[in-house]
Amino acid sequence: MLASFKTKVLKNTLIYYIYRYYKYKFKYFSSYSAHGEDVFITKFFKNVKKGFFVDVGALHPINGSLTYNLYLNGWRGINIDMIKENLMLFNIFRKGDTNLNSAVSSRKGLIDAFFFEQGSGVNTNSQKWADMWSKKFKKVYKKRKVKKDTLDNILNSNLVNKNFDLLNIDVEGHELDVLKGLNLKLYKPKLISVEIHVKKTKDIFSTKVYKYLNKFSYEIVSQYNQTSFFIPKNNLNIFKKDKNYK
């Protein structure tokens, strides 16, 4: 009855529009990520008070982070980065999280890291991507060996719930290898955000990452710039019914 009154009467008044103006002027979603991806994440998990995330290729605790908003809202999680210097800031500004120095891949062992500089968003485990960034930005990279581990091992050793909330992957061309190190029949994150670099949005459906996640019953529901969001297919109806995304 209240909803009907709101639709038929209140929405047609000047007072309602003034209310809407001030509501969104003072109540909005702050963003720390590069392209506003964390706004989508914040809205997606609006009813989750203290969730859990796993951030692979975390890079920086605040600037460009898809998980800092969640951290401010009481969430905790695991931040993983292969560059040990990057973890120094996490240990200062994200003390409530578990911060791990490791590359993440399909197997445990050692892997080449192509290192441009501390805090660089294009440090990678892919020679191909390193050469591409070097040519584009006219910068020289250094190569060094770093330890690598699988997400299965990391999640298991940290006693992570099988249905944890968010998995974020941003590793400059190494995303598929990260996913192959995770048993998606055992672990079912409620939302997976992953960088997929394509020229056109439609090209996402031809990528190995999309096909791999689709094979494990994950469907894409949104894309912000280079970041694509996937949820389990059996949650699609819940997602579509949520008025927040209409």
Defining traits:
single chain, 246 residues, alpha/beta, Rossmann fold, seven-stranded mixed β-sheet, three-stranded mixed β-sheet
Largest sheet: 7 strands, mixed
Tally of helical segments: 10
Can you write the helix and strand succession as a string?
A: HHHEHEHEEEHEHEHEHEEH
Give the helix/strand class. alpha/beta
Shape: globular
- Please give the share of residues in helix: 25-40%
Percent of residues in beta strands?
15-25%
Name the CATH superfamily assignment of the largest domain. Answer: Vaccinia Virus protein VP39
**Would you tell me which CATH topology of the largest domain applies?**
Rossmann fold
- The CATH architecture term of the largest domain is 3-Layer(aba) Sandwich
Quick overview of this protein structure:
The chain is an alpha/beta fold and 246 residues long.
